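Anti-sigma factor antagonist
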Amino acid sequence: MGGGGSWTRSPRTAKTDQSPSSRGGGRMLEGLEFSRRSERGATTVVVAGELDAFTAPSLANELDTQLARAERDVVVDVSEVTFMSGAGLEVLMTAAAEAAGTGIRMRVRTTGSRAVERVLEAAGGEHLLPRAD
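Structure:
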């Protein structure tokens, strides 16, 4: 990771642990965690943990926020996702469609996450989501 941009960490799920995260500021929450980096007009949202029907609404909220703030490009990096259900795929596909409708280019990076690749392959989503890989 080069210099430049700034990172913020915003873990989210239903249960809150007010202890600081070991990898950055903010709250540490159970299940799904987000990091953001903005650099030269592009935003990268790193998603880590389990992306299922329980945590998908948190990702939807995070992507809505980031797409509203985005200047031009958003990359959603799901390479640290350890489990993904169809609910996670639905959130990614919905966000990509909404981004395209506003002129924002949203792409998904899956490098190294077999959990995500399996869901994409099973659903045919590898052709439906713009890729950053």
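Strands lie at 6-9, 16-20, 27-29, 32-39, 42-51, 73-84, 105-109.
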